[in-house]
Specification:
By secondary structure, the protein is an all-alpha fold. The chain has 17 helices and no strands.
Length: 445
């Protein structure tokens, strides 16, 4: 069923948006606490922790294009992408809990292998849901502004999810004296909420009439993804931009726990409230602005706001204090636009490609997009661990007390300020090559 045959009802918008309770939770919580769990609870060296997380994400990147192409095949053969989404929603909570269920009695090597295996399977389950979920807006809504409306609702839920998981989950963890038990209870509660949001949203992918489709090998799936990249210059520009911004935000997300503990000497909850409260307010405002001046110009404004706010936080090296929450709030306002606008441009790119080349490949585009997003977020954690290792960060086990050297504190601050600001600047250079405007999309629709 095509977008033109579907009416974008409030029920459709709400059912689609609730999926971001799951995607926002999974996108936030591991990025926030997983590296910290490895270094400060399991006693794994910072660089090794980065390697473990990166390996799991590399696997994710490998399978995303395959899942995307198979999702397209499921749509053609069975009339729906729902089976993949349901499989991911059911499997993810189980393996998410296992990721944070490492027994306190095992050493760092066994603990690292445990987390690697469990988190890799968890990431696979997430991709089964996320890849077709990303593809759906091109099929649920037609037109430049309608997709902005759909995605804006999703981003509101996404920012609420980031707030709930980013601020609430560490509070659950910290309410237990035993760090291992705290992480386990946190994972159980978070896994159930993530799975529920994904499960409910799976039913927005309604069943349509199946069609006959040819068989494709795994190699064919990768070829389809590479062909989509080659033939769509707008997709290449948007994808690389979003990858770089994922790198910047992933770096700051992974570093937030370290800033809260070692720079501010406080919990991470207030830091997250400062980030997400403005994001919730600004998500619909960016949509309003985009209708007046276009998504592209609005996206540049949001990104610039985020970059400038990040750069100002360099002053933490000399003046640590509560003033940090003000630039974090500005970054949160920019972050809302950085999320919603590219995600509303992606279905525009898919629609433009279908109109230009006469083929529907939303799943393939969604798979490559998710692989790019995953790459950016994974590299964010990797860059953080490299900076931590280079600056002399000291890992610890359980409640062991350590004192970080001054060089480590400087490394933490730089990874939260100068480095992400520079990456955001590079992303805007990439975005300058994005050619589509409202007139192009409305013609394609």
């Amino acid at each position: 069923m095509t977008a033109s045959e579907r009416v974008l009802t409030r029920k459709t918008i709400a059912t689609y948006a609730i999926g971001s309770l799951g995607t926002g939770g999974f996108g936030t919580l591991p990025g926030l606490v997983l590296v910290f769990y490895l270094t400060d609870t399991l006693g794994i060296a910072a660089l090794a922790a980065g390697v473990l997380v990166t390996i799991a994400k590399v696997w994710d990147v490998i399978i995303d294009p395959v899942i995307g192409a198979r999702s397209d095949r499921s749509l053609a053969k069975h009339g729906s992408r729902r089976p993949y989404m349901l499989a991911g929603a059911i499997a993810l909570p189980v393996f998410f809990v296992l990721t944070f269920a490492v027994p306190a009695s095992v050493g760092p090597v066994v603990a690292g292998i445990w987390v690697l295996l469990a988190f890799t399977i968890t990431a696979t389950a997430f991709s089964l849901f996320q890849v077709p979920y990303i593809a759906l807006p091109a099929e649920l809504a037609s037109g430049y502004d309608e997709r902005t409306r759909l995605i804006s609702a999703r981003v509101v839920v996404l920012t609420i999810a980031i707030l709930l998981f980013g601020a609430g989950a560490p509070e659950i963890r910290d309410s237990f004296d035993d760090e291992h038990l705290g992480y386990l209870v946190m994972a159980i509660v978070a896994g159930l909420v993530i799975g529920l949001g994904m499960f409910v949203s799976s039913f927005v992918a309604r069943k349509g009439a199946p069609t006959e489709v040819p068989q494709f090998s795994v190699a064919d799936n990768y070829r389809k993804g590479l062909h989509a990249l080659r033939r769509s210059q707008p997709f290449r520009a948007l994808l690389f931009t979003f990858l770089l911004q994922g790198l910047a935000t992933g770096l700051m997300l992974a570093g937030a726990q370290y800033v809260a503990r070692w720079v501010l000497d406080t919990g991470v909850t207030i830091l997250f409230l400062s980030l997400i409260a403005p994001a919730i307010l600004f998500a619909p405002l960016w949509a309003i602005v985009s209708r007046r001046i276009g998504k592209e110009r609005t996206f540049i404004l949001a990104s610039a706001l985020f970059g400038i706010a990040a750069l100002s936080m360099t002053l933490l090296i000399w003046f640590p204090g509560a003033w940090l929450y003000a630039p974090v709030a500005l970054a949160g306002a920019g972050y809302a636009g950085m999320q919603s606008l590219p995600m509303s441009m992606l279905p525009d790119v898919i629609s433009h490609d279908a109109g230009t080349h006469g083929q529907g490949s939303a799943g393939t585009f969604g798979g490559v997009w998710t692989a790019g997003e995953t790459t950016g977020m994974a590299l964010g954690a990797t860059v953080l661990t490299i900076v931590l290792a280079a600056s002399g960060y000291l890992e610890s086990v359980g409640n062991q007390v350590v004192v970080q050297p001054g060089s480590a504190i400087v490394g933490i601050v730089l990874s939260f300020s100068v480095v992400p600001a520079a990456i955001i600047a590079a992303s805007l250079i990439s975005f300058a090559r994005y050619p589509l405007r409202k007139a192009d999309i409305d013609v394609a629709a």
